[in-house]
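Tokens for Aspartyl/glutamyl-tRNA(Asn/Gln) amidotransferase subunit C. Go.
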Amino acid sequence: MSEIDLETARKVAKLSRIAVAEGELPALAQDLSRILNFMEELGEVDVEGVEPMTSVTPMRLPRRIDGVTDGDIQAKILSNAPDAREGFFAVPKVVE
């Protein structure tokens, strides 16, 4: 059983860049201890012969051809622009 003390909880909060009030440190230490204890319990589970999986249902992700295209939707994209000229977005000049 791993028990996290207040000093370790304070250090973890600092390293994580999390602002933790002094009064909240005991609760943080207790939560971290529970997490570590749970991880130790998981380490005791016998997983010999168990196949790794990425999902609970065996399915194959849909595939597409990995080809480079221009999208062929220039007119549709430019239709949303407030000002378009010669096939490009037109923006006001900001630097003289």
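The chain is about 35% helix and 5% strand.
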